[in-house]
What does this fold into?
Amino acid sequence: MIGIVVFALLWLVGIGFFGWNVMKVRNNILLGREIDRSDRKSDRWKTMILVAFGQKKMFTRPIPALLHLCIYAAFVITQIELIEILADGLSGGHRLFHESLGGFYTFMISFIEILSVLAFIATVIFLSRRNLLKVPRLVKSEMNGWPKLDANLILFAEITLICFIFMMNGADEVLYNAGQSHAEGQGSFGFAISSWLGPVLFGDMGIESLHVIERIGWWGHLAIVLGFLNYLPYSKHFHIVLAFPNTFYSNLEKKGRFTNMESVTKEVKLMMDPNADPYAAPAEGEDAEPQRFGAKDVTDLTWKNLLDAYTCTECGRCTSSCPANQTGKLLSPRKIMMDTRDRLVEVGENKRKHGKEHEDGKSLFDYISEEEIWACTSCNACVQECPVNIDPLSIIVDLRRYLVMEESKVPAELAGMLTNIENNGAPWQFAAADRLNWKDEN
Amino acid sequence: MSTTLKVPTMAEMMAQGETPEVLFWVGCSGSFDDRAKKITKAVVKILNACDVKFAVLGTEESCTGDPAKRAGNEFTFQMQAMMNIEVLNAYEIKKIVTACPHCFNTLKNEYPELGGNYEVIHHTQLIQDLINTGKLALKGGESFKGKKITFHDPCYLGRANDVYEAPRAAMEKLDAELVEMKRCRTNGLCCGAGGAQMFKEAEKGDKEVNVERTEDALETGAGIIATGCPFCNTMMTDGVKNFNKEAEIKVMDVAELISEAADL
It folds into this structure.
C-alpha cells in the first residue's frame, strides 16, 4: 500500500513540476513578437511528420543519423513499457499485461530490449565522439562548461536507464524461471535479451536479492524517466519535445525571402506620397507606440525565434556548415541560438522576480558581438542544415537591423555602399545615366 | 560571329506601342562591373539569337535594394523597391529575367509584399527553356567536348530559391564533362560575397571564404568553373588568382558558355 502511495506521489510531483516549468518556458517564448504561422496547415503537418518524426534532415550525415535513430526509436518504444509500469504501480500488480497480451507481450518487450541494446551501443559511441574522438563540431569553444556537461549527463542518464531496464527484466526472468516472480506462472518470459542475459548476470543469486534487484530496476526506471522529464526544460535535450512544434511552425517560404518590415513600409509610403500629412495623428486602432526597428533584445525577436532557441540541441551542424565559421571568423550560428536562449531565460527570470516592466540594462548584445553579426554571408547553410528547422539567420538579420536603423552602427564600407544606393541607385559610385553604356562598349 | 547587339529599352518599346515578352533586369553588377558586363552581353546575344522579344529598363533601372536589405537597412531597401515597382508597374511588366541571383531573389520574393508581382526567372532557367524548346541550338561554336566543367551553386539561386537543376541541365548540352565539387547543391559552400559581404572586407579570420571555395573547385580538376552569379564570378576569379591558376582555369557564367558553344 505504501508503495502505491509513494508511486502516485512521485508521478504527481514529477508531472506537476514539469508542467510548471513548461508553463515558464511557454511564457518566455510568448515574450517574443507576433508572427503569423497559422496558415497552410497541411504543409505544416507534412513538414513536422517528415522532419521531426521522420528525421529526414538528420540523414544528410548518415552515421550520426543512424545512431540517433537507435536512441530515438528506443526512447519512443520504451514508453510502452512505461504504461505497464504505471498500471502496475497504481494497482499494486506485477506485469499486468503479461497474461492478457500473451505472445504479443513477449514480442513487445523483446522489441524494446533489442532497441535498448542498440541505443546502449549508440550512446557509448556518442560519448566517445564527444569525449575521445572529439568530433570538431562537438568541442567548439561555445560548448565549454555547462553545454558539455549537459550533453554528457544526458548520455549517462540514457545508459543508466537501459541498465535499469535489464536489471528489472533480467532479475524477473530468473525469478520466473524459479516460479518466484510476482507474475503468474513459471518458465521463461522469452524476452529476446533478458531471457539469456538475466541468467548470465543474476543466475546464481538468491531469491531475495533477485527481488531487490528487480525492484531497483523498476523504481530506477521510473525515477530516471521522471527525473529526465524534469531535467528537460533546463537542458538542450528539450528538443525531444520541441522539435515537433518547431518544425510545425517552420518558415514555409523560400529561404531567400527576408521578412518585410511593415513599420518601415508605412514610413516609406508616407515619404513617397506628396499628399501625405506628416503631422497626421495615427488612425483609430493603429499602433500608436512605434516598435523598435530590428532586435536589441530577445523580446524584439519573434516567438518563433525564441521557440527555435529552446529547441536547439546544440548539435552544431549549422556551425560546421557556416562559411564564416569554417574560415576562422567569430560567428557560430549555434552560439547565436545558445545566447538567445540564455538571455531569454535571464529576461524571463527577471520579469518573474521584479515584474513585467523590469529592465536590467542588458541586452542580447551583451551576449552576441557585432563582429559575429557582420561576419554572416546570409548563405542559408545553417538554416538548410538544421535537422529541426531552426533559423539562426533571421536573428542575425534582426540584430543587424537594430544596429543599422536604431544605432547607425554600420561598418564604414557598408555605409559607403548604402550612400551610393541612396544617391545613385547602385552600390558603387556610378551614375544612373551610365547604366546602359555597356551596350555600346566593346 | 559578331553582330551588333539589339537592346531595346522599355521606353523605346512603349513609344512604338509594343510590349516585350520579358524584361531583362540587368542589375548593377551587370551594368557597371567590367567582368559582369560580358555576362550581360552573352545573355543579350542569346536573347537576340532566339528572337526573344525583350527590353531593358536602361537608365530607369535602379538597384533592387538587395545589399541594403541584407545589411539591415530596410529603409533604403524599401525606398529602392518602391521606386522600382512604380517603374515596373507603370510599364505593366509581367515577366522578368535576370542574370543576378540576388536581383532574382529580391524581385521574386521580396517585391510582392510591396506591390510588385511578376513572374521572375533566372537566366539559366530561360536558357534551359530555349534549349528544350529547340529555339537555341548549340552548334558551330567552341566545342567543350571532353572538357571538365564544375558548377558553383550561388546561394541565392540554390538554397535560397531551390534552383539547382536549370544551370546543370543547360550545361549538359555542352557535351562537356560536368563534375561536382564535394560540396554542391544544398551543401554548396558560399563564395563569401552574400549578405552585403561583397562591399566590405571580411571579419578577422584565418582564411578567405572564396579561397576555401576555390579549393573545392580545384580538387575537381575542372578547367572551367561555371557560375550563375556576377558576385560569385568575382569571388571565384579572385580565388583562382590566389592560387596563380588563372592561366589554366577560367571562371565563366553559364550564359557565356552557352553563347560560345552556339557561336553567338
About this structure: Residues 2-30+61-248 of chain A form one domain. Chain A has two domains: 2-30+61-248, 292-424.
